[in-house]
Amino acid sequence: DGGITQSPKYLFRKEGQNVTLSCEQNLNHDAMYWYRQDPGQGLRLIYYSQIVNDFQKGDIAEGYSVSREKKESFPLTVTSAQKNPTAFYLCASSPRQGIHEQYFGPGTRLTVT
Amino acid sequence: AQKITQTQPGMFVQEKEAVTLDCTYDTSDPSYGLFWYKQPSSGEMIFLIYQGSYDQQNATEGRYSLNFQKARKSANLVISASQLGDSAMYFCAIFNQAGTALIFGKGTTLSVSS
Fold first, then answer.
1. A54 has a chain B CB within 8 A of its CB
2. What is the mean pLDDT of residues B60-75?
3. Residues A36, A38, A40: CA angle, nearest 5 degrees
């Protein structure tokens, strides 16, 4: 079955630690995205990538980093510089840049204490 | 810049009734796409329906239809014959001007009772 996987579903970390969230897709999509969702809010864009080895900052990129070494993988690192990292993180992909439906993974709920 | 406004934080409906979830948008781009997603309590985002700005007809997908009023910049989602499984958060979204990512509204929580 084609789709997007994110692991783990729940992640707990101590303040000051970097943590990497995994996102893998087997849909052969060019574009991938990371969004953050806070309680009672919509999604906000962190980073996106339209092609391997290239990525762009979204609206709230501070304190986050990404890589896109393979088409199917787009990991997100939440660094210790991110002031409020506790949130729900969603990864998405779409066939290519432009106005296309985005397919979402199941999300990772990160709690930092 | 693009913006989505969803003014109904919560809606309540009984099974088999129809419900309309409101969405207004702001954009200066003549070409844009509007999306509705459903987010159940599990957290995944499920694509429901899409409307292109140049589409002449309102989009329809099964029990979902989009009431697109371009002059009013409104793209309301209509769910006919509500089911208990429709209870979820619903988000309206528009592509940003660069066409690189979606901009979401704050969502509407729909509760369906028997």
1. no
2. 96
3. 130
